[in-house]
């Protein structure tokens, strides 16, 4: 893994390197100046720079892809480099590997560092202490597992309740839909009946108008008949005086018929 640490160093370190070092060398992969996050950044920078994204969204997408597909060996190497990083200290970035190695060996001889922390009590042995720790861890795991199981059961019960409520609501909704359809049918039926009543009323009005027209016509005809008969109206008493005998009555009837026929014409 080639280290491009010079591409992301600070301005002050670059100036220091220009002043103190005549030749700028490439830093080793496990350089003490880099922390594990910077190592990871160098790796991601190389992967991303191959495609050279132009926009911010493309850069974020590519970073996510690289992070999801990162190899476990890189993380493991970074974790292993932490131990060396705790030992090494940087005095001059231009020193060679041999000088750094010699200084590291001298420091280790003077101040040997042990990274294992022994918290075992004096009354217990290390194996017994480890067993106790393992049992405690098992107990914690079982507690958490039981807690998760209880939560899962609660979630299942809640889901069942929610399903029951949803089914109940669905049934109520179906009933409301049926009632709505029935109301619509009744309303359409009432509207049809109302239209029929309106049409019947219109027909009745037409018939009434026709009856009025016929009545007016009959009135006019009756008036005309009355006018015609008024001229030839004869008093029954005068007729009785004129026609006393039966022969006279026959004449009277014939005269009345003649008058009626003349009036009709």
UniProtKB/TrEMBL annotation:
Residues 3-59 form the Tc1-like transposase DDE domain. GO terms for molecular function: nucleic acid binding. Residues 112-128 have a biased composition (Polar residues). Residues 99-111 have a biased composition (Low complexity). Residues 92-135 are annotated as: Disordered. InterPro entries: RNaseH_sf (IPR036397), Tc1-like_DDE_dom (IPR038717). Residues 138-228 form a coiled coil. Gene3D superfamilies: Ribonuclease H-like superfamily/Ribonuclease H. Pfam families: DDE_3. It comes from the Eukaryota. Keywords: Coiled coil. This is Tc1-like transposase DDE domain-containing protein.
